[in-house]
Amino acid sequence: MTSNGEILVIGSGFAGFWAAVAAKRFAGAQADVTLISPEPVLQIRPRLYEASPETLGVDLLPLLDKVAVDFTQGKAAGLDPEAKTVSLADGGELSYDRLIVATGSRMRRPPVPGAETAYSVDTQAEAIALDIRLAEIARKGTAPTIAVVGAGFTGIELVLELRDRLLAHGGAEAAERARIVLIDRADVVGPELGPGPRPVIESALSEARVELQLGARISELARDRVSFADGSSLAVDAVALATGMAAAPFTAQIPGERDRLGRILVDAALRAPDAPEIFVAGDAAAADTGDGHKALQSCQHAGQLGRVAGENAARDLLGEASVPYKQLRYLTCLDLGRSGAVVTKGWDRRIERIGAEGKALKRFINTKLIYPPVGGSVEALFAGSNAALIESFDLLAVEAA
Ligand SMILES: Cc1cc2nc3c(=O)[nH]c(=O)nc-3n(C[C@H](O)[C@H](O)[C@H](O)COP(=O)(O)OP(=O)(O)OC[C@H]3O[C@@H](n4cnc5c(N)ncnc54)[C@H](O)[C@@H]3O)c2cc1C
Is the pLDDT reported for residue 399 higher than 60? Predict the structure, then answer.
């Protein structure tokens, strides 16, 4: 059988990886599928607040090889939707018949002087840099001060790991005596999480002796200081940012409307309406989940958006009708360090599990569910790329153990 054309996927995150596998599953030999990324690695971003960040990447080459998806190393720099080409930062150029943009997101640093000096856990490299600093702090054995700016999902998960991270680096004294400060301009922790899980989160922060500085506006950052708009400042041994994400810069090249996070407003098939051969998935896409909600910049949405975008790019190339993206189940599972985890269901975030029960589910998600079937069969990879199959899986009905 001869190929009907080339499907190009940009980005090897949860969306891009599953999009490439789904496209190949649907099209088989009728399409060539190529994944472009700076490295053939799936960074497990949801775990980057944890210890040992250097272990949190999956080598994708053996998996892509199994399902006959090609890999091109590079960073996409330019897009010409008329000519249907993507140019690479190193000067190369690739043509496509259908394109899937899955370039993900990047943390938005606050617009204050010195913001670039702060640590973060946005990428594996940044998480490793923070870990090296935590090891230095642990070795000093004094009473360090560590600040985290941003009391959303990531900031809460990070701040609740910090004592154990120091301990893991042999810093028992530093872990015990550390002053850990969580800073946000909002007046509450987890503003976007709503009031449901807040008491559980507040109690975990209090048990972990995390100081809160809420309603606080930072005006300047330095390696050793956080300065506030009211003129006060905090001397720190490290400051890490967890100040929210926006679509990665490449998304700006796609013609069309975008939301305040820079995401392309896609249709139900996940197509960019102003560029019919381009599909957008993951953190780069603002898609309706099928019940009036917008998909979040989250791993659970990214993987599913990727699966649907991949299948639809292949369907479109082969002249078949697209399937609509739909994701009606929504769960959040927030790690609360030694206090376990809180699991909520639905957009109104009703609490389903807390404590050790919640933690068991978080462990299952973080160590199994979000990983591709490394070492698994071609059939397992193709099954994992099937959006309908994945949507029918009720995580809360599965015993985490
Ligand atoms: C610390 C942290 C904790 C998180 N916790 C959770 C959680 O508990 N639950 C949850 O659901 N989500 C969580 N998230 C969010 C989740 O990680 C993201 O929503 C998810 O990774 C998005 O997947 P993606 O494939 O769209 O993008 P990404 O994972 O960002 O992958 C994008 C890919 O595109 C590549 N790329 C970017 N630009 C280019 C270019 N120009 N050319 C070529 N390649 C490019 C990148 O190198 C990368 O391979 C967390 C994120 C962080 C940082």
Answer: no
